[in-house]
Structures are given as C-alpha cells and as structure tokens.
Amino acid sequence: MFERFTKDARAVVTGAVEHAERDEAPAVGPEHLLLALLDREGGRASFALASLGGGAWLDSVRRALGEARRRGGLSQAETDALAGLGIDVTEIVARVEEAHGVGALAGDRRGRGGWSGHRPFSKDAKDVLTRSLRMAVARRDRYIGDEHLLLALTSRPGVPAEALADHGVTHESVTRVLYGGPESKAG
C-alpha cells in the first residue's frame, strides 16, 4: 500500500514513527500520525489545517493529545462517559501516578530500559491508513496524500478527531476546504 503514498504522506508516516520513538510508545498510534501531520508544512493537509485557523490552535491540539496519553489514551468523551458511571478518571490517574510515577498510564518507559527496534502500528493506526486508502479510492485519486490521512483521522472516533473537532476541524470541514461543496461519503 505504501507505494501508493505521495512523498508528503510517506513523510507523515515516517514522522509518526519518530513521534512514537520519542514517546517511547510500544506502537505507532493515530495520535502519532496527527502529530506528524501537524509538523508538516506545504502539503494539502497543512493547507486545510491552516485554512481552518490551524496556527491559532495547534499547540492546544498537541496539549490535548498529551493529556489523553496521560489518561492512558482515553478520549474526553470516554472520560465523561466513565464519570457518568461514577468513575473519576482524574482520581485514577493521580493514584496510579502516585504509586508508579508520572506518565505510568501513558506507557512512558523513560528511565526504565526504553524500547529498541521496530515500532509496529497499532490496530487504530492501521485503521487510519486503511481509511486513507478508501478516501483516495472514493475520490478516484491515484495516490494517497497527506490530505487523505487527515480525512481518515477526522472520520473515525478517537482522541485525534476529538482534539481537532474542539477547534472546528471535522471530516466535513476538511472535505469542504479541500474539495469545496458538500461532504461526500467515503470510507
């Protein structure tokens, strides 16, 4: 599938692996793909993000991803749902970090031997890559670009889509910026 990726899309995937390595995460996740997209300039995805006011809120999205990572990857919607059941995720995180150190739920391995070798892609990250292919095919695009990765990230529930949606970046708004007109169903 990677032979169908543009240079920009390949750079995003490579950047995601680098983010996972910096985080010492056991696998590349969708949040790493989003962080790599936010790092890029000059691609169609960065154009779409800039058109949607990206310069003003990129740091906020990065912070939201970090907070979700600290919660063990739970989105704010999942945290709120658990609160509705009487489960205080903030309290759980505080207790776990008190016993095991800050970042314990994030899988932070710094100072604990680290991780070496190949970083696999998580099931969710693979789903993003598959959806990006479907987005490109649905639009009859010959190659998968970084814009298809952004569309795929915004089309599935999870922390990246939630962090972007908090700033008005949804599948529909990205589609409108990239292609004009109403959102077409893809993926």
From TrEMBL:
<keyword id="KW-0677">Repeat</keyword>
<dbReference type="InterPro" id="IPR004176">
    <property type="entry name" value="Clp_R_N"/>
</dbReference>
<dbReference type="Pfam" id="PF02861">
    <property type="entry name" value="Clp_N"/>
</dbReference>
<protein>
    <submittedName>
        <fullName>Peptidase</fullName>
    </submittedName>
</protein>
<feature type="domain" description="Clp R">
    <location>
        <begin position="2"/>
        <end position="187"/>
    </location>
</feature>
<dbReference type="InterPro" id="IPR036628">
    <property type="entry name" value="Clp_N_dom_sf"/>
</dbReference>
